[in-house]
Design goal:
4 helices, mainly alpha, flat
Length: 89
């Protein structure tokens, strides 16, 4: 459900193309994690878990390096660092 909800949220906010691709990647990670949780006895369950972890790690890495470069999301109370510095001048 979180994968679906996140895609609905992203669609409503109409992000840039690369931001939407990143959102799809995160939704796929949740789907792999769900598959691992629903079918733990399948031979592929470990693979599902590994793919989910790899995609989650990749998402965190992309956040850390700032890719894709987009404006901050006001719904998460993000702001530009330079805009807060301008107010202090």
């Amino acid at each position: 459900m979180i994968a679906f909800a996140y895609m609905v949220y992203q669609s409503a906010h109409r992000p840039a193309r690369m931001e939407f691709v990143k959102a799809i990647m995160l939704a796929v990670a949740f789907l792999f994690w769900t598959a691992n949780q629903l079918w733990p006895n399948l031979r592929q369950a470990t693979l599902f878990n590994d793919v989910a972890i790899a995609l989650f790690v990749l998402d965190v890495f992309l956040v850390m390096v700032g890719w894709p470069a987009t404006s901050p999301d006001q719904s998460f109370a993000e702001t530009y660092a330079e805009s807060s510095q301008e107010g202090q001048s």
